[in-house]
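This entry is passed on directly below:
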Amino acid sequence: MAGASDGVAVEFPGRPHGPVRNILLRVGIALALILFVALLTYVGRDGYVDPEDDDVGLLDAFYYSTVSITTTGYGDVRPVSDGARLVTTIFVTPARVLFLILLVGTTLEILAQRSRDAYRRSRWKRTLNDHIIICGFGVKGRSALRTLLDKGVSDEEVVVIDESPDAREHATGAGLTVVCGNAASTDVLRHAGIETARSIIVAVNRDDTAVLVTLTARELNPRATIVAAVREAENVHLLRQSGATSVITSADAAGRLLGFAVRQPQVTEVLEDLMRVGQGLDIAEHEVGEDEAGPIRGLGIAGPVVAVARGEDLMRFDDPRAAAVQAGDRVVHLRSHRT
């Protein structure tokens, strides 16, 4: 995780080991080196001398290992036989050098961590443009991500905002960059590059939070597409007034599917099929080019047309105005992924 001086932190993908874990790992290796040298000394204790005591015991072996590995070298316990000196040359000296490398490397790691994270964060911010921000990485946020990826969006184009450590771990594990904090905060949204984002998905758990996030995001980026989810239909108008381009009522949608499933289970299956991108039936959109203007039948779209969007006007397939399309119209149609 890369920390910021103003309290907003950014977590990057592909960094499973934090600095604390790295330091603990190095401490463990250092202790293992001390144990290794102590065991070598104890096994070959006949080749060592202690002026204060004729016998070199286990405690003396650990004492010699500690002062030798740390290069303190009091000289009270020392090798006197050729075999003990050979062991010191071949094993103890390399262990001493490795210990020093670990000590210096850990110190440099601590000193360089902030600078390295600041550089990586600065480079990431410079390349952040025309991206998608997902506010909230719970069930709704993860489902939105799967659909985006199935539609061809790369994980490098997506930034997640969430306060939950579990949600952030899921996001970084999926290869996403995460901004830690409350998505309703202006500072947090700016750290996620709200000014240059093309779309914002508001998938937080509370409707009042969704309204606040939408309002703040729209103020910071008047041009972005903002898609928000709410639980209650009575809050839809609040989201639209706050600046949401589109609002999905999750509770009502689930309730309608349950109602269909009771009397018309096949309808439910079709609707669920449409929501699974990349398999079975899909809903696609075709933008009409300058040379395609005219009767809609001349477009050559294989699947049936559902609607035609012309500016802010959405015309259903049975609307007479949808019989002919103009340049810039967006034709919504079905298509099939045959297996």
Observations:
- Residues 42 and 61 are 5 Å apart (CA to CA).
